[in-house]
Design the sequence.
C-alpha cells in the first residue's frame, strides 16, 4: 500500500476514502504545517496531497524525500507549487479541474452582483437597522445592459459569461487564444488586454496566476478601464496590484470591487477595509459540499491513477 501525507483536513468521507486506498497520514487538527514539519511528515511517503495553503516552493521541493513521486493539489490553481522544480526532481504535480467550475463561477457572479449593487453597505446598514427607504437610497449599478469583460475565458470564465449573459450583460473577453464560435456563445473577443479593459464596465478576473499574469491589473492597466468601472477577482490575488486598485478606489476611478482572493491570504491589504464599496469574501470559490467532495475525490483518484499507471490525465508538469 502506498503511503501518502494529506496536509490539511478533508471532508470526512474523503478522508475515509483515502484511508481505504492508501496508508494515509491525516492532519486531524488541521494545523498549518511549517516547511520543516511538512518535510518531516513526508518521510517514507510516496505522495503528498497538498492544499493551496501549502507553499511548495523550489526550496521545499528540493528537500523532499526521494520517495515522493507525486504532489496532488486539492485545487485547480497550482500557483502554490513550483511545478518546474517538481519536474526536475521527477515529481508529478496534478490538479482538480472541471469539478469546481460551477461553484467558483457562482461566487464569480456573486462578486459582480455584490460589488455592483452595493451589498456590503446594504448588509451593514440592514444589520444596524440604520436605513430608511428613499428613491435614491444605495443606488447601485445595474447589470442589465452593462459590458462584462472577462479576463481568462477558461472553464470558469465561460460559466460566468453564460450566467451573466442571462442577466442581460454584454460579454467581452481576452484570452491567450480566441474560442470557437460555439464556446464563445456571442462573446466578443479582444486579442489584447488594453482593448478588453477599455470596454469593461465590469471586469471579472478569471485567469490562472502565472509569471505572465502577476500584477496584470496594475497602476497602468487600471487606467484603460472606463471611469467608474467595477473590478472583481475570483481567480488569484497575485494577478492584482492591491495598492494600485485601492488607489483607484480612493480616486473613484473604480466604483467598487468584488474580491474572493488576495495576495498573502488571509491577510488582505487593509486598504480595502476602509472602502464600503469593497465587497469581500474569504476565498469561498469552490466551497460547497458537492464541490469540495468532488475535488478531494479527484485529488485522491489522481494519486491512485498515477501510482497504478505512472501517469495521470490531470498532470500539469
Ligand atoms: C481554488 O481556489 C482552486 O484553485 O481550486
Sequence:
Amino acid at each position: 500500500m502506498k503511503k501518502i501525507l494529506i496536509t490539511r483536513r478533508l471532508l470526512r468521507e474523503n478522508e475515509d476514502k483515502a484511508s481505504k486506498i492508501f496508508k494515509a497520514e491525516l492532519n486531524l487538527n488541521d494545523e498549518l504545517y511549517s516547511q520543516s514539519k511538512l518535510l518531516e511528515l513526508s518521510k517514507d511517503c510516496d505522495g503528498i496531497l497538498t492544499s493551496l495553503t501549502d507553499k511548495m516552493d523550489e526550496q521545499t521541493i528540493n528537500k523532499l524525500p526521494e520517495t515522493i513521486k507525486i504532489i496532488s493539489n486539492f485545487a485547480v490553481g497550482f500557483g502554490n507549487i513550483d511545478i518546474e522544480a517538481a519536474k526536475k526532481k521527477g515529481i508529478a504535480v496534478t490538479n482538480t479541474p472541471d469539478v469546481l467550475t460551477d461553484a467558483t463561477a457562482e461566487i464569480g457572479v456573486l462578486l459582480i452582483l455584490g460589488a455592483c449593487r452595493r451589498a456590503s453597505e446594504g448588509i451593514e446598514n440592514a444589520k444596524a437597522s440604520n436605513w430608511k427607504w428613499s428613491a435614491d437610497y444605495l443606488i447601485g449599478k445595474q447589470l442589465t445592459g452593462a459590458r462584462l469583460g472577462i479576463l481568462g475565458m477558461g472553464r470558469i470564465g465561460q460559466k460566468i459569461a453564460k450566467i451573466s449573459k442571462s442577466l442581460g450583460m454584454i460579454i467581452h473577453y481576452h484570452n491567450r487564444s480566441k474560442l470557437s464560435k460555439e464556446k464563445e456563445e456571442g462573446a466578443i473577443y479582444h486579442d489584447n488586454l488594453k482593448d478588453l479593459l477599455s470596454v469593461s464596465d465590469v471586469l471579472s478576473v478569471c485567469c490562472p496566476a502565472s509569471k505572465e499574469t502577476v500584477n496584470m491589473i496594475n497602476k497602468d492597466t487600471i487606467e484603460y478601464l472606463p471611469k467608474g468601472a467595477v473590478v472583481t477577482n475570483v481567480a488569484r490575488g497575485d494577478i492584482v496590484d492591491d495598492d494600485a486598485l485601492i488607489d483607484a478606489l480612493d480616486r473613484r476611478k473604480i466604483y467598487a470591487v468584488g474580491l474572493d482572493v488576495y495576495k498573502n491570504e488571509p491577510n488582505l491589504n487593509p486598504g480595502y477595509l476602509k472602502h464600503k464599496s469593497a465587497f469581500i469574501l474569504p476565498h469561498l470559490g469552490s466551497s460547497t459540499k458537492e464541490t469540495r467532495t468532488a475535488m478531494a475525490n479527484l485529488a485522491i483518484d489522481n494519486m491512485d491513477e498515477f501510482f497504478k499507471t505512472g501517469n495521470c490525465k490531470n498532470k500539469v508538469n
